[in-house]
TrEMBL record:
Name recorded for this polypeptide: NAD(P)-binding protein
SUPFAM superfamilies: alpha-helical ferredoxin (SSF46548), Nucleotide-binding domain (SSF51971)
NCBIfam families in the record: gltD_gamma_fam
Pfam families the record matches: Fer4_20, Pyr_redox_2
Organism from which the protein derives: Sphingomonas horti
Family matches, as InterPro entries: DPD_II, FAD/NAD-bd_sf, FAD/NAD-binding_dom, GltD-like, Helical_ferredxn
Keyword terms: 4Fe-4S, Iron, Iron-sulfur, Metal-binding, Oxidoreductase
Amino acid sequence: MAEQPMLKFVDRAQAYPAKRPAGLRAEDFREIADRYAAPDAAAQSARCSQCGVPYCAVHCPLHNYIPDWLRLTAEGRLREAYELSNATSTMPEICGRICPQDRLCEGNCVIEFSGHGAVTIGSVEKFITDTAWDEGWVEPLRPGRPTGQSVGVIGAGPAGLTAAEYLRAAGHAVHVYDRHDRAGGLLTYGIPGFKLEKEVVARRVARLEEGGIAFHLGAHVGQALPFAELRARHDALLVATGVYKPRDITAPGAGANGIVEALDYLVASNRKGFGDRVPAFDNGALDAAGRHVVVIGGGDTAMDCVRTAIRQGAASVKCLYRRDRANMPGSQREVAHAEEEGVEFLWLSAPETFEAAENGWVSGVRATRMRLGAADASGRRTPEPEPDSGFQLDADLVIKALGFDPEDLPAMFATPELGVTRWGTLRIDHQTMMTSLDGVFAAGDIVRGASLVVWAIRDGRDVAEKMQAYLNASATKGRKAA
């Protein structure tokens, strides 16, 4: 009788791919760990307990078939594992790299609850699809039979790219418009290479281009390219712009030079990685080299900033967050990586005022200790200042990583009838995912607010199905009218 390949979690320890030493990895923007060797991926996959109710899949926004492709990996059937992984996700190797698995699939792994350490799902997912690319198993995007209908997608981030892929596979002409000069959205410009190397994104975009999706880059919808013109040009539109308006700080002195937005800082760093000319980096305004850096915020964007500053050669890097470690929104793994690389975290701390030198450049942060008070309406305890607890930090570069809000799209698109919620996100009919405008759909962060890439992919998948139903109905109506 053949040996059972699974259920090895009792006698086989959890083992992630080895990370490079912190001192070495802080010198470059390469990913901090290589992928598994095939025997290691099989061994870790074999730890899966093959639950009757797989909480890992339940807590994955894409509901990936995780236990099934873990079993196939353990059995060495990698091509089948890839095909199953790819069946529910357009970007499995990207999710394997940047999803907060500790809060999603791995955080809900049954053997994690039993004290044996979760199956290393994200690392196996990365291994499966990277192997598929190497072996030539990733098939081209094959368009369906031409429908004669045209779709416009505004935004080349994960939601827009996912919807574009499904709609092209259905046979529609698909045009993607993006304000940047490269597709990918935050995958390209917002996430540093040490989490997601850019060729991983570029090969996905290239596959879509080869499948006949037309990319219009540097296209500022609402400026040189009127929104009304796009509505007239296409049978349906998808708005998947994401949320890019940074939240601000109102503390005294917040207007000093050297206090910068997180996205400006990260985009400049990523552009330098591409070899672009970036004047604001080259003149030192967005370069942390030799600086005493203070990052304000506790989310994944803040973690990206502190770890980027380390790699740029900052003299010191501190992170101020007004809640404690247990209540931070960012990934605990990212915090651990940052601490290993030399970042100092000041929990339960918030800025009071910013000080500037005579030349107007920030020179320090006056901060105060915080404590967690009563819970607010969401159930989170509200931070409040500790009396007489102020302290001083040297800083000549302050990075604000406080999150993002939606831009004013009705004004930007000169379309006041485009409905929004009280938070500024686009209002949709959640049954159809259509906005207040006929034939105009919306998905991703512009609907749900700043969220995870995996949720954007899920929304892109869902909205493609809704748009397909709308286009089918439109075609049927047109045939009857004829």
